[in-house]
């Protein structure tokens, strides 16, 4: 294999946007490695609309959104290999991969962008009692079966978890003629976007039962029924059980960044997000290894994935063309008062351009609060927010000059509005 300057692992929305940005910033030698048989990643099975409002200022379906980036990749002549599995990423950035035509091969790029996306939390991680009958699917698997392969997983459906994919599949299954009996959510709030609750549940009279979970699955060969119960302090309350006769259970219980390759390479991972800890350039603790998109932290909108990946492509290009940046001081980013995590987790003011983008999620539903950012004891940013919810990611853009003042850490916190 000939060597390349930049290897991008993953050809979904993050990988495509990163490749386009890197090429536009002067990197000629780019290779995207994608394990599926086509580019576009998860967007190929997301046939609902609502994509692209920020990026293209119009409403697109998932495949249409992906097609715009795939067209840019092809116009720019960026190379990609499909049906290619990356087996290993070493600490020295050596990438080991294989496919049918090239066999097993190694690449020694100057920089690597991790864009592997995320996967769904499986049933085994949820500890639901009962047998293991047919009829239990993750929401994403059901989405692929319905939208790409033309199969209907079941006729009478209960959905556990109110993440965005679960909400969207409640509507999709209804439109395909199935009866969705209810959506049960363990937390006292939904994990999905407000617009999805309205458009996918309220518009179809599908009940959303907050603070409920599945306590039993009936059926040996195939699911025959589900029992849900109310939950308090994480434990089911005896006497609150409700039974539903159904043949299908869809699980939408959270997404996990796909980081086996990162872990093997020695990339430091955040215990909260499960994704890499990165600095303001989206660079991991291994110089020249960058991360963007859902492999870094789970996003709510694909537009933000593309924006973040574009920044990663830009920074990777600068690293390849100019070498490592003299770092100067590094400010850790801390979270307080309901802020669960931030990306990045560290900022080097001397390496930042004009602005630094901070993204974060909150740990509960908060009303009439103010997002505040401090450098040491000085407040450098504040913005009122009438409602903050865990299902919606927050974005703060800071002028880099503000970070060059006195202070040894940046703190992101919520205050009374």
Count the DSSP helices: 7
* Shape label: globular
Beta-strand proportion = 25-35%
CATH class of the largest domain: Alpha Beta
Give Rg in angstroms: 22 Å
Strands side by side in the biggest sheet: 5-2-1-9-21
Relevant CATH superfamily of the largest domain: FAD/NAD(P)-binding domain
Helix content: 10-25%
Average pLDDT metric: 94
Category by helix and strand content: alpha/beta
Can you tell me the CATH topology of the largest domain?
FAD/NAD(P)-binding domain
Largest beta-sheet details: 5 strands, parallel
Low-confidence stretches: none
CATH architecture descriptor of the largest domain: 3-Layer(bba) Sandwich
Task: Please provide a written account of the structure.
The protein is an alpha/beta fold and 417 residues long. It has 3 domains: 1-119 and 255-324, 3-Layer(bba) Sandwich (FAD/NAD(P)-binding domain), CATH 3.50.50; 122-253, 3-Layer(bba) Sandwich (FAD/NAD(P)-binding domain), CATH 3.50.50.60; 325-417, Immunoglobulin-like, CATH 2.60.40. The protein is built from 7 helices and 29 strands. The strands form 8 sheets. A 5-stranded parallel β-sheet has the order 5-2-1-9-21, covered by helices on one side. Helix 4 packs parallel to helix 5 (194-201). The protein starts with 5 loop residues before the first strand and ends with a strand.
List descriptors.
417 residues; FAD/NAD(P)-binding domain; five-stranded parallel β-sheet; 20% helix; globular; alpha/beta; Immunoglobulin-like; single chain
